[in-house]
């Protein structure tokens, strides 16, 4: 059962919206009158608050500078909202009286270091670090910039459920989120989850950049790519350290072309619509996965470049040495991932590139 606007009300709203939009100026009283027509529509139109935010802002600012009957210019933002009420709102007419059970449920958290999110249904995790510019924002901004369902940030709950709020910067983030959701016929509800219970995303948001997130300096990667590539796929990457547009993540991650490199074949392109020739891969695996990586390279005859620490005592080092590969000393080539505030390790290992031709 849904709550919908009757036909006669729809006609009245469209008429009033066209009437207001046809003018260059309007008084706060006239704007308030139009908002009065829309006041009850939140029960039937999901984006009602989203599509009246500019109208309310203009009315309130105008009253601060004058009285109810002083005409004020109608802004472009208000005109955009009026166009919505001139017809587009009909597509959103109808809202369940009893909210359905959510098809997807998630939680997120944001710290000064980074952000973390977790989807209960898919078990997908998302974690990353803020750039210096992003880290300078308030905690409310950092929290809103995430996709979330459950959060321990009370203002975030309010801005999402009310489709905006008084702070323009935060309201714009909420607006973008809702426009994205509405375009995909998704309804969002935010719920407060006490911080003591929000342990998973909180931990993810404070992880920062672990060793497995570090990357090879882009200039060194570029040199190797020019001489021994072009590489098509970055087999061990994340949102913070991928070197190629096509990359594979260790776990489910937004932007990844595939998940779990070890579940894929390394002898041909991993994705459709690629050349049938043997692909060349960029491989910079986590240190504890190097032996497994070398074993798979041996089994499948993988082509590309493998980068490892220059550790002759490691169990995989003699195996690579016996393969008669060209190898290149890279020195201190490992750096923290992009957009990370993590400091470089005091004594990072020397690195070596193994050329698999």
Name some characteristics of this structure.
single chain; 357 residues; alpha/beta; Rossmann fold; 3 domains; seven-stranded mixed sheet; three-stranded antiparallel sheet; 12 helices; 18 strands; 33% helix; 18% strand; Hepadnavirus_pol/RT
- Number of domain modules: 3
The biggest beta sheet reads: 7 strands, mixed
Mean pLDDT: 75
Quaternary structure type: single chain
- The largest sheet has its strands arranged as 13-12-11-14-15-18-16
CATH topology of the largest domain: Rossmann fold
Proportion in β-strands: 15-25%
Write a concise synopsis of the structure shown:
By secondary structure, this protein is of the alpha/beta class. 33% of the residues lie in helices and 18% in strands. Helix 1 (7-21) packs antiparallel against helix 2 (28-38), helix 1 (7-21) packs antiparallel against helix 4 and helix 2 (28-38) runs antiparallel to helix 3.
Structure characterization notes:
It is a single chain. The chain is an alpha/beta fold and 357 residues long. The chain folds into 3 domains: 2-96; 106-205, no CATH class; 211-356, Rossmann fold (3-Layer(aba) Sandwich). The chain has helices spanning 7-21, 28-38, 53-65, 76-85, 132-135, 139-144, 154-161, 168-183, 199-205, 218-228, 290-300, 317-322, and strands at residues 2-3, 25-26, 72-73, 95-96, 106-110, 114-119, 125-129, 150-151, 191-192, 215-216, 233-237, 247-249, 258-259, 280-283, 303-309, 326-331, 334-335, 351-356. The strands form 6 sheets. The protein has a 7-stranded mixed sheet, with helices on one face. The longest helix is centred in the middle third of the chain and has 16 residues, at 168-183.
